[in-house]
């Protein structure tokens, strides 16, 4: 994090000019405070994990609010400790969270079924049927796929629906009372019409006709949130909302909020990749590449999501549900071993140590294979996941190759999806920006990603702050854009005017080595598929 002058921080806080951003990621809830120059002042964190309950990936609703308030408390405590100032108000607030999934509520605002996250892959029948109906790819993660699958399953809660939303939309409603959603997050619920900036009305009519014989008391347009583009006023923090964020009562109500967004949109903002022919890769628990398109794709690809930037530009997204979870599990195993030896090494030391060692591995990982799948992958396709590590008797088995294999495997599904865009659709990409935990260790994640995609990868210093910083920037765009610049121009001329990026070009031997690994990876997929069939999950 950049160093900022304590006097300027105090002035910014006391004048109410700081901006607050909160993002709920897969494994961490992060709260960030930035100043007028979009420089991070302080952050707070809360670690959490999804649960696999009743064959569904979920987060308990109580954990959502416990995590948000704990993350906010961590931020405010650090702020008081470092700068001797308390936070009572900010200029604007932004809320971001994991995209997709299904949160269904009745008229009383009660959650009808546990939150179904993007990670679930039980909606295949619904996704396939809707893709055929709309002639538009509907991935299993999307909210409409979850809703239609619940209808196909004749789940009784569907009759009582008053509205459905995403995680960011739910939190925003609890803070403001407004049932709205940023267009980027909305485009992962149901297809949007780029021309009108709202949900596709033709497809809404098709869906209503599809379920007419069910005789529900609602129509689809009645239960979806209103769609807002970046820079649009999205309500103010209520008294009840202020207490949810800050149970101490210090934070005052009345603060404006920008439209709530998904982690894909905030990732695009955090990397300044919202203009056509730019793209970014967000790599953490999941991994996805977002490429801003110049025109519609020629064909419908079930492996490619079509979403939008927070300002409404069309985006092709290659998404994989699994990325660093298996890497994290192995690092934890190494940490346990270090404790056992009497020479405990913490994770902040282990990660860069092991990541850098991976660069010493063979270009093709020495014949090793890994399938770090905790959940299914529609790109491959896999309905479920079984983490596997495979080697042959003659493979080059050492720690460097072992770590490199897991880093390569974390990007395998993404690579297969991206090849569709570049090889079949001939999508042109000028710049790829990387952000997320995969890039936290300098250089290593960039080199691995560059080898996978066969193109230069740029990482900015602020990219480590991730989507929390991105949503804070979107909140700033709401209140600090007097000249009415487009989001692209605001980012270019105001936020990123002083570029602090590092760009790495791929090494040809690493491109070739990754290609050899992917060939072997595809050959071994039947082993993973067999493990899913033969070894039941708990």
Automatic annotation (TrEMBL):
GO aspect biological process, one term: carbohydrate metabolic process
GO molecular function: kinase activity
Origin: domain of life: Bacteria
A Pfam family: FGGY_C
Domain Carbohydrate kinase FGGY N-terminal as annotated: residue spans: 19-244
InterPro entries associated with the record: ATPase_NBD (IPR043129), FGGY_C (IPR018485), FGGY_Carb_Kinase (IPR050406), FGGY_N (IPR018484)
Start and end residues of each Carbohydrate kinase FGGY C-terminal domain: 280-477
Keywords: Kinase, Transferase
The name this protein goes by in its record: FGGY-family carbohydrate kinase
TM helices/strands, residue ranges: none
Entries under CDD domains matching the protein: ASKHA_NBD_FGGY_BaXK-like
Kinase found in the keyword field: yes
Family the entry assigns: Belongs to the FGGY kinase family.
């Amino acid at each position: 994090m950049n160093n900022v002058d304590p006097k300027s921080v105090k002035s910014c806080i006391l004048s109410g000019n700081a901006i607050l951003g909160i993002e709920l990621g897969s494994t961490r809830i992060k709260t960030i405070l930035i100043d007028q120059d979009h420089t991070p002042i302080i952050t707070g964190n809360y670690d959490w994990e999804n649960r696999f309950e009743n064959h569904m990936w979920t987060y308990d609703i109580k954990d959502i609010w416990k995590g948000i308030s704990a993350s906010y408390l961590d931020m405010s405590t650090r702020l008081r400790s470092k700068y001797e100032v308390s936070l009572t108000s900010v200029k604007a607030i932004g809320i971001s969270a994991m995209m997709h999934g299904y949160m269904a509520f009745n008229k009383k605002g009660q959650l009808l079924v546990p939150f179904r996250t993007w990670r679930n892959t039980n909606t295949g029948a619904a996704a396939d049927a809707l893709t055929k109906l709309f002639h538009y790819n509907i991935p299993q993660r999307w909210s409409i796929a979850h809703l239609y699958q619940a209808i196909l399953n004749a789940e009784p809660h569907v009759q009582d629906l008053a509205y459905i939303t995403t995680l960011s939309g739910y939190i925003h409603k609890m803070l403001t009372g407004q049932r709205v959603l940023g267009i980027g997050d909305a485009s992962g619920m149901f297809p949007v019409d780029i021309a009108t900036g709202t949900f596709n009305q033709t497809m809404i009519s098709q869906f209503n006709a599809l379920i007419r014989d069910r005789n529900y008391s609602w129509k689809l347009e009645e239960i979806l949130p209103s769609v807002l583009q970046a820079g649009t006023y999205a309500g103010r923090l209520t008294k009840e909302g202020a207490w949810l964020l800050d149970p101490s009562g210090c934070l005052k109500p009345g603060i404006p909020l920008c439209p709530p967004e998904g982690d894909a949109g905030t990732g695009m903002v955090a990397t300044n990749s919202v203009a056509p022919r730019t793209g970014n890769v967000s790599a953490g628990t999941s991994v996805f590449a977002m490429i801003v398109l110049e025109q519609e794709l020629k064909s419908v690809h079930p492996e490619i999501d079509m979403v939008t930037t927070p300002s409404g530009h069309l985006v092709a997204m290659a998404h994989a549900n699994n990325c660093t979870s298996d890497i994290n599990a192995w690092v934890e195993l190494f940490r346990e071993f270090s404790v056992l030896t009497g020479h405990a090494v913490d994770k902040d030391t282990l990660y860069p140590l092991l990541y850098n060692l991976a660069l010493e591995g063979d270009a093709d990982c020495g014949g090793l294979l890994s399938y770090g799948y905790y959940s299914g992958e529609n790109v491959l396709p896999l309905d479920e996941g079984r983490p596997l590590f495979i080697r042959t008797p003659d493979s080059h088995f050492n720690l460097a190759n072992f770590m490199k294999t897991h880093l390569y495997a974390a990007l395998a599904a993404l690579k297969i999806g991206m090849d569709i865009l570049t090889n079949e659709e001939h999508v042109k990409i000028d710049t790829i920006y990387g952000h997320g935990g995969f890039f936290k260790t300098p250089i290593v994640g960039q080199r691995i990603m560059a080898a996978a995609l066969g193109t230069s990868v740029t990482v900015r210093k602020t990219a480590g702050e991730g989507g929390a910083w991105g949503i804070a920037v979107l909140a700033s765009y709401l209140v600090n854009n007097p000249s009415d610049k487009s989001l692209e121009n605001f980012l270019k001329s105001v936020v990123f005017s002083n570029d602090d990026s590092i760009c790495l070009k791929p090494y040809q031997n690493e491109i070739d080595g990754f290609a050899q690994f992917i060939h072997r990876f595809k050959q071994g997929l039947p082993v993973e598929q067999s493990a899913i069939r033969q070894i039941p999950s708990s």
